[in-house]
Amino acid sequence: MSLISLQDLSVRYGAHTVLRHVSLDIEPGEIVTVVGPNGSGKTSLLRAIIGAVAPAQGRVLHKPGLRIGYVPQKLHIDPTLPMTVTRFLRLPDRLSRAACARALDTAGVPDLADRQMSGLSGGQFQRVLLARALINEPDVILLDEATQGLDQPGSAAFYRRIEEVRRETGCAVVMISHELHVVMSASDRVICLNGHVCCEGTPEKVSSAPEYRALFGTGTGGALALYRHDHDHAHDGACDHPHDHAEAAE
């Protein structure tokens, strides 16, 4: 059965409807990208999936026992607070150091365990948030603009790691991003959202759909090909360079 099923979902904040009649399923092991302009309801979709916002209409169904990992847009930690990466990962449930080490290894940063959180680059910080999402061996990981503030090489390296995490663990991935050329290349399926589902399918199908082109233009196809070329030859070390810290979007 599907991991997550949204059935005729509508979400409202007061009198403002941000999602209307959204129906979609998330299947085991797939990478799904949700794209759309600012204000299209992408973050609200994830919030509905994790139960942070109640549907005004419709239902959100989870497979029984579903484990969800979540990587937020940003997380602020007081830079004056002394906290190592391992200590951060063990909050609040005092998980074992071995579990933390395994999660960091899967996230591609096994050498960060004893580093101070305040001393991490933007890319390293996001990898630690990814490790935190992986600790409980989730069936699906949700990523909400997880590379906000990273440069293009850092973003590409992060999403290559997401592909590797899926391959190593078999978990499904649902991610939101404005970086269409990066995330669409890493996706099995793309959902174009603008208050409702405009179109969905493979990256190639969606990037050529009239509804998608009306929102984003026609330049993504060439960028997809360019990213795939870079993807085949790039190394995964770009995330080790300093980047600005993430800032909230949408």
Question: What does this molecule look like?
Answer:
34% of the residues lie in helices and 22% in strands. The protein contains 9 helices and 9 strands. The strands form 2 sheets. The chain has a 6-stranded mixed β-sheet with strand order 5-6-7-3-8-9, with helices on both faces. A 3-stranded antiparallel β-sheet has the order 2-1-4, with helices on one face. The protein has 250 residues and is of the alpha/beta class. Helix 3 crosses helix 4 (122-134). It has a domain at 4-73 and 140-240: Rossmann fold.
Task: Give the arrangement of secondary structure elements.
Blueprint: E1 4-13, E2 16-26, E3 31-35, H1 42-50, E4 57-62, E5 68-71, H2 85-90, H3 97-106, H4 122-134, E6 140-144, H5 152-169, E7 172-176, H6 180-183, E8 189-193, E9 197-201, H7 203-207, H8 210-216, H9 220-233
Parallel strand pairs: 3-7, 3-8, 5-6, 6-7
Antiparallel strand pairs: 1-2, 1-4, 8-9
Helix pairs in contact: 3-4
